Amino acid sequence: MTSVRRFTCDDLFTFNNVNLDYFTETYNLPFYLQYLANWPEYCLMAECAGGQAMGYILGKVEGADTDWHGHVTAVTVAPEYRRQGLAKQLMDHLESVTERDEGYFVDLFVRESNVNAINMYKKMGYSVYRTVVGYYSGQEDALDMRKAMSRDVHKRSLQTRRTRIHPDELETD
Amino acid sequence: MEALERKLRPIYEALDSRNPKTALKLINTALQKHKDNQLLRVLKALALNRVDKADQACKVCDSIVAEAPTDEQVLNILGMVYKGGKQANKLIAAYEQAIKARPQDGHLLQVLLFAQTRALQFGKAQQTAMTLYRMKGQHSIAYLWWIVTCLVLQARQAGATPNARKLLLLAKSMAQKHLADPEAANLQLQSTGESAEGVRLYLHILKELEDADETSVFLAGPLAGSIFRTDTDRALATALDQAERGHTQAAVDSLRDLLQRGPPSWDLLSSYLEQILPMRPRAIALSNGTSKEAMPANEYIHAANGVNHPSQPSEKDVKVDEQLHPSQGVLGYTQEAGDLIQKLQQASLETEMQRIPASAARAPLLAAVDLEHRRALHGLADDLGISMEDQSQEEHGRLDSSREAGTAGREHQKSGSTTDGVAAAALVYFNRLGHLASCTADIRRYTSCLEGPCKHWLAGQLHHSCSAADSPQQVQPDLSKIQRQVNAHLIEHDLGLPEFENARQAEQFAAKLVTIFRQAVELQKKLDQKERGVADGLIALASTALITAWKLESPPRSPTYLLKALLVLEAAQHSRMRSAPMRLAAMSLHGMLGAATSAIDSFDALDIKHIQHDTLSGHLALPVMLATLCEEGVAHLMGDARALYEHHERDAGDTILCAFKAGNWTKVLELVMFKERLAASHARALAYTEMAVHALSSLPAPSPASMLEGASALAQTLQSALPTGAAGLRFNEDLSTRPAWRPPYSGQSRLATAQWWQHAASEPTAGYGRCWWATSAAGESSLPQAQQHRVHCERSLEQRSMLPILLGAALSPEHGHAAGILRNSLSRLSTSEACMPNGAGEPAAAGSGLEWLQCLSYGIFSAAAAVQAAQAMPEQPDQAAQEVLQQLEQLEQQLAGLVESIVPELQLASKQAIWTGASMFVAAAFANEEALWLALCLQVWSKPRHAKKGKKGVECSPAAGTDLSSGLQKLRLALGQGIKTLLEHLQAITHRDSEALMKGQSSSLVCSAPAGASELSHELWSWEEQVDVKDVLSGVLCEQTEFLSAVQQKLHKIERLL
Q: Dmax of chain B from CA atoms?
């Protein structure tokens, strides 16, 4: 009974049941609108039978050459719809769009302390590529997790010599 | 030239390093030698802009534009300055002039196109894109789509006119020509997301033109493939298109086929059922609506007084497709749907057994409930004979068999009034998926519609099912079992149950819910306190039950049960620090008790920001702050809200341009509509209006002159800030976040709290699912209650936004003009029932404080109209004076009525530790506004009148003049006396022996009932060691005292004006 569709501007008026959760950040308006304006295929909303928001994913495609990849900016599910595989469903959609756009991998950043999320991403096939020191306002490190797409036959996108970098060394914002 | 370049470098460096003052010095020096240099001058404008001298910056830019600059750098910097000053038109004019000089400059044309797009000038942008398209030929397909998008947007602006259709046809023909080009089509087929947007836009145009045949052909063609994620999505769209064209049979066949072939998605199932047994149309009532409305959760009970009762669906609204049914009959199709759903359920059961989560079974199980719901809606439901006595599991078995027999037998009894089948299917859903946190929400739209014995039956079965699931060996509860219990209680609440006979029963029920919550907390000890716990939902329910207990008491009610509700919330929040429903309930409750700081703390803890100011702040926090005279809070909150709207107004053009540049044509349409929606937001209009009124009511040293000046300026500001015509407002408020016991208020925000005490407090609380506002986007729904809410909101906003005009006119020395304004405005307001006093300006009934206040609010300006008219017509002194005297007497009566109506509750408050009721809030509203307006008016009206220069003044006859001044004097005395009376009673509250009263209140919290009371208090809150009743009560008391003091200060301030 879940419908997954493109995230629309009007969803910003009805996503409070998802965003009032402590762990879900409400970004400023231009942030959402820039994502919708530039990467609408990477922004999806899951809604239930009554039209209520269940969860959503916001992402983008960026980089150049072998660094061309899909990026998960935010993925969140309303508390009452958790543990039903919805986050995986949304991630699968984003990965399939990345495949279509011929990205080499999908990556995401997660707080080092967010063990539940890290384990969930691991189950989905993501692995820790490197640590970004002080990524969260200098207070906490982020884990840069990646999953290779089919274009990266030899999974080179998962290999790195530098397992710890600083935010200013990131290839993309 | 080289010398100039040398001078430019440090200027750029200063600007880059954010040092505009240094840049300005350098520029001024350079300008001494190169005074006409456009680049230096425009850089000066930029620097001036950065030192907050926008006006001077614009003047410099205007002088450059007058010279028709063609230098690209100069034009770019002009753009930066004009953008900051919102002067897009000037920038566009500058580019247009430059292009006249360099018509073949593609880059300049492109910059012009961007500027026009950013300014949302789609007509001009279309022409510029056309020039670029012609200039660059086939290699600039993006410009073609840019043109098509601009045409669609212009058609939208043209509304329902023949021109709109012409524009759409032109857009269609341009898009079609391109898509028909084999080379282009090939490109589309290989497309990624960006080019698929062209296809999507084309489809949008076909839909706008209502060109069903062409839409159908296009959907079947090769190009449409690029816009669907999966083949199933495409097949679904095709089937829905078939249905739209009236080929329901074909649509049903396609959907059935899809369901039989693939995994049963909810989209497919609900579309299939919709073709067989449609629900009511979902279209939004607003003409400018952009969002589709979900089916209301509670359509049986909310459709006005049974007009759309499920058993009697309106012929117009709910029609079974006649084409579909001659061959097989509606019953045949319904039977077929039932069979198919059963098969899908069976298949999902097998999937489940292969260790795939039970959630996979949700769609077919929910479809079974949905089918029953549709059957009930169409009067096709079987009467399963559910009665109040059918509470046992055995009965449930019988009902299940009955259900099967009913569907298999095809001999339907069209009892037409039963929702028994929905109840039975909901129970099946619960039995299978009651362990999921979403179970209640999944079936809310159905359970909230149940009426009659079946809802009692279902509630009984839910609890029976929970207890039956306990095996004799399983003594300790586990989380799954608790989740089922939680769902059983939440569904029961959605059913509008349990019904309590007395307060004690409600309290015991609350204690039972808290006990389950505690068990869950114990089992989830390791859970992060900021996470949602399994039983968190029960706390909001428990506090609602305690508020119901309070309502069940005979008046005058003691605040004990409300405080218990507060303590329950307080205790639970020690374990669940960030639960939004708990925070919002606590915020509402604190607000009702006048404890503004705690209310705001709860709101702030949710970190409400950005777009949430549009959906939450205006209806949740603002009424609390206004009611409790929390001036700083109002200024801060409304400032944040205004920043959201103003920043979006500033940035929207950039975002829309981004979407254009990225080739996301349909997103361009969406972003334009979003901008319009936010600009027409009711919350926005409310923020601007309340900011204006707040600025007037909080003038530090109010005087007639300062008030007149402020009111006139704010009247103008509001006029330019508010959308024209309240009817075009959009209601983006997310009302679903409100507790079940706190309905949205459609009157003036400042009076929302008083109104709750006055009316809602005596009304029974419906279950959350039964609240019309509980659904997503309820504010814009087509439910009668929502429509009524919108109409009342529009009226009260109009009334409120006219206050600066009324006040300005009441205090104006231009009597004739002011009288005209007042009469016109009052005549507009007279159509608004919300603010009109009954007949002679008195409340219809015995007269509550709130009603008297509303009469007084109108009465002041009614009197002002008479006074101004009298002063403007000195030639008819006696007649005019007579009318004024009548109005003044009426005002006097209203003042007396107001004071008399609120005094008894204030007297009662002086005997309680924690006061309750509407009166304090009415007194606060009066002190903050009406008393101030009246005091200032009296100052102006009482001044001796002087003849205007050059005109021969006509004095009133001596008798009329004496009467008038004595009337004004009487009113002044009445206002003074009213304020004095209020102050005396407020003083008595301040000086009450609060410590002794607190002791009494504390013990009543623990010993309110004869037996087992202390046990109950333990079950409700004292299980949490950190909760200290004394601290909580002292906190509320302290905040109430602060509020009281604010009201007293306001009244003293007005006393000094008299």
A: 103
Q: Which residue has the tokens 């004739």?
A: B816
Mean pLDDT value across residues B993-1007: 76
Domains of chain B: total: 1
First to last CA, chain B: 72
B610 with A22: Cβ contact below 8 A: no
Domain containing B107 equals 2-243
Closest approach of A161 to chain B, Cα-based (Å) = 33
> CA B410: distance to chain centroid?
46
Q: Which of A3, A14, A82 sits opposite B266 (nearest CB)?
A: A3
B371 or B412, which is more confident?
Answer: B371
- Tokens describing residue B353: 């057994």
Contact criterion met (CB < 8 Å) for A8 and B670:
yes
What CATH number has the domain bearing residue A134?
3.40.630.30
B237 lies in a domain?
Answer: yes
Could you tell me the CA-to-CA distances from B608 to A11, B261, B605 in Å, in that order?
17, 45, 8
- As to burial, measured by CB atoms within 10 angstroms (0-12 exposed, 13-18 middle, 19+ buried), residue B1015 is exposed
- For residues B675 and B294, what is the distance between their CA atoms, to the nearest angstrom? 22
B671/A84 touch (CB, cutoff 8 Å), yes or no: no
Rounded Cα–Cα distance for residues A148 and B27 (Å): 54
Q: Is the pLDDT of residue A92 over 60?
A: yes
Task: Please answer whether residues B810 and B821 qualify as being in contact, where contact means their C-beta atoms are separated by less than 8 angstroms.
Answer: no
pLDDT of res. B505: 95
Nearest to B1036 by CA among B636, B404, B589, B604: B589
Q: Would you call A111 helix, strand, or coil by DSSP?
A: strand
Rounded-to-integer distance, Cα B842 and Cα B457, Å: 49
> Would residue B842 count as lying in a domain?
no
Cα–Cα distance, B481 to B388 (Å, whole number): 26
Q: How far is A12 from chain B (nearest CA, A)?
A: 7
Q: Are B293 and B782 in contact (CB under 8 A)?
A: yes
Task: Identify which of B293, B608, B674 has the shortest CB distance to residue A9.
Answer: B674
Q: What ipTM, to 2 d.p.?
A: 0.96
Q: Residues 6 or more apart from B909 whose CB is under 8 A from it?
A: B915, B916, B917, B919, B920, B989
* DSSP 8-state secondary structure symbol assigned to residue B351: H
Q: Which residues pair with A53 in a beta bridge?
A: A47
The CATH number assigned to the domain holding B173 equals: 1.25.40.10
| Structural domain includes residue B374 | no
Q: Which two tokens stand for residue B498?
A: 């349990």
Burial B15-28 (b: 16+ CB within 10 A, else e): beeeebebbbebbe
* Chain segment B761-812, per-residue pLDDT in tens: 778 888 999 999 999 899 999 999 999 999 999 999 999 999 999 999 999 9
Alpha carbon B838 to chain centroid, angstroms: 31
Pick A29's closest partner by Cβ from B363, B611, B677. B611
Asked if B183 and B174 touch (Cβ cutoff 8 Å), the reply is no
Query: Considering the entire predicted model, what is its pTM?
Result: 0.91
Mean pLDDT calculated for residue range B170-176: 95
Closest CA to B1006 of B565, B564, B569: B564
Domain range holding A144?
3-169
Secondary structure of residue B321 in the 3-state scheme: coil
Q: Is the dihedral of CA B470, B476, B478, B482 positive or negative?
A: positive
Looking at the structure of chain A, the number of domains it has is 1
* Residue pLDDT, tens place only, B717-730: 898 888 876 568 99
Distance, in Å, from the CA atom of B97 to the CA atom of B1018, rounded to the nearest integer, reads: 80
Counts of helices then strands in chain A (DSSP H, E): 4, 8
CA nearest to B201, candidates B236, B151, B161, B271: B151
Residue with tokens 């040293």: B701
Residue A35 C-beta-side C-alpha neighbours within 13 Å: 24
Q: How much of chain B, in percent, has pLDDT values that exceed 70?
A: 84
* pLDDT category of residue B830 using cuts at 50, 70 and 90: confident
